[in-house]
Amino acid sequence: MQASLRCIAQSCGAHFGIEEVLYNCPKCGGLLEASYSGSFAPANELKRTFLDRRLSNAPLDQSGVWRYRELFPFLDDVSHVVTLREGNTPMLDGPIAAAYGGLDRLTFKHQGFNPTGSFKDNGMTCGVAQARRLKMTRVACVSTGNTSASMAAYAAAAGLEPLIFLPHGNISFGKLAQALEYGARTLQVEANFDEILALVRVLAERLGIYMLNSMNPFRIEGQKSIVIEMMDQRDWRAPDWIVLPGGNLGNTSAFGKALRELHALGFIDKMPRLGVIQAEGSAPFYEFSQRHGEGAFRAIAKPETLATAIRIGDPVSWPKAWHEVQVSNGVVEKVTEQEIADAKAQIGRCGIGCEPASAATLAGIRRLTAAGTIAHDADVVAVLTGNVLKDTDYIYRYHTGQLEAPGGVKIDSKFGNQPIVVPNDPDRIAELLS
User: Fold this and answer.
1) Which CATH architecture describes the domain 91-117+217-410?
2) Helix, strand, coil shares, percent, the chain, to 5
3) Contacts within 8 Å (CB) and 24+ apart, 358-361
4) DSSP assignment, residue 89?
């Protein structure tokens, strides 16, 4: 199997060596993706291999990413791989959430069960493997939280120096704590995510640092495994819809690429539709979709949302994501801060829990079923991208009626669960509980 980097721009399509340090096409500036030429093993044979590996104690086979390595064969030497047993995330039924979203049934694919608590681990293990292959010693990312936590962990495990750049005062401490614990050198820049990303791209080229944000094509290859594992867990029966949050749009790009490849190789017999959900104050992809992709993509200079993982106004992967939405006959929707907060509480009532950005999926499903875009009896998988403990301050403030949206607008605690102060008196407490 021959691997290369291919420009996704239809007017270009240039190929480059798999070991070149590139994030954009040197010829036209387009985004790059990993491309493969040669013959894959038959789908039925690979399905059997993937199933057999679940009984293996080999580290690569125990990884819910590298178990499927034949479907992203960019690496010629697996000794470069560092795995923390990422992936292996469950499919969970959420009946309360389904009813709230207007569905007969809803299944969550919960990426918060990953080693650092988010989907970023699926991509980071591949990105760090490529960094080691290229003999890089330092890796960097710009992050509002989850990427930094994941990169710090995998870089530390790989013996690389992690450098993290983040917006000053605009991050969940639960996520920042992870990066600090894993030994990352952390720089808080007085700018927003998109401004910092431009800054770090200059520094990376000047100082020879390998960037591991979602424009890195090997991150996308790893994130394909989320969908591959999902289909494996469903015995290769594709759902009608896969709904996911939209921030930097790396997952949208990865999911669409995975679905196209799985369908072409005969693993699945239909293409699910993608539903991409953005927060109202950070929804440039939604606005672009409302113009049906016509005209220039308009970034948002000051994106706002309490769902910090998707607070991105200039998503770098939007060209890839728009292609995947079109190919899958998908849709893009936006939801309010109130809708996200209420949906998050409903997911919690299922005994599942997630970070705020993840709950955008259920909020979006509720809108899409109400509009008739998603049928009430549709087979839907919603992806929860992060763990419930990623942003505990948000949870406490919602349930105690203290949560405010950007601009100071109070969020109504419709499904609040206020803690109660009681005296040290068994009679009084018994009376209260009865």
Assistant:
1) 3-Layer(aba) Sandwich (3.40)
2) 45, 15, 40
3) 358/112, 358/245, 358/309, 358/383, 358/384, 358/385, 358/386, 359/307, 360/245, 360/246, 360/277, 360/278, 360/279, 360/307, 360/310, 360/335, 361/243, 361/244, 361/245, 361/275, 361/277
4) P
Structure-token match 């109130």, residue found: 338
Cα gap 67→50, rounded to integer Å: 6
Give 113's contacts (C-beta < 8 A, 6+ positions apart).
88, 89, 90, 387
Which amino acid belongs to residue 139? Answer: V
Q: To the nearest 10°, the Cα dihedral for 312, 317, 322, 324?
A: -120
| 280: phi then psi, degrees, rounded to nearest 5 | -55, -40
The amino acid occupying position 156 is A
Q: Are strands 380-384 and 107-110 parallel, antiparallel or unpaired?
A: parallel
User: Could you tell me which residues are beta bridge partners of residue 400?
Assistant: none
What does DSSP assign to residue 118?
Answer: B
Cα–Cα distance, 272 to 256 (Å, whole number): 9
Neighbours of 428 (CB within 10 A): 11
Backbone φ, ψ for residue 36 (5° rounding): -130, 140
The answer to whether 227 touches 295, Cβ cutoff 8 Å, is no
List the structure tokens of 315. 């998503």
pLDDT per position in the chain (434 positions), as tens?
899 999 999 899 999 999 999 999 999 999 999 999 999 999 999 999 999 999 999 999 999 999 999 999 999 999 999 999 999 999 999 999 999 999 999 999 999 999 999 999 999 999 999 999 999 999 999 886 889 999 999 999 999 999 999 888 766 677 788 989 999 999 999 988 778 888 999 999 999 999 999 889 999 999 999 999 999 999 999 999 999 999 999 999 999 999 999 999 999 999 999 999 999 999 999 999 999 999 999 999 999 999 989 999 999 899 999 999 999 999 999 999 999 999 999 999 999 999 999 999 999 999 999 999 999 999 999 999 999 999 899 999 999 999 999 999 999 999 999 999 999 999 999 999 99
**How many whole angstroms from its chain centre is CA 190?**
25
In DSSP terms, which residues pair with 225 in a beta bridge? none
Whether the predicted model's global pTM rises above the 0.85 cut:
yes
Q: Hey, what are 308's tokens?
A: 């910090």
Annotate 313-367 with DSSP letters as a single string. SS-TTHHHHHHHHHHTT-EEEEE-HHHHHHHHHHHHHTT----HHHHHHHHHHHH
Find residue 243's DSSP bridge partners.
275, 382
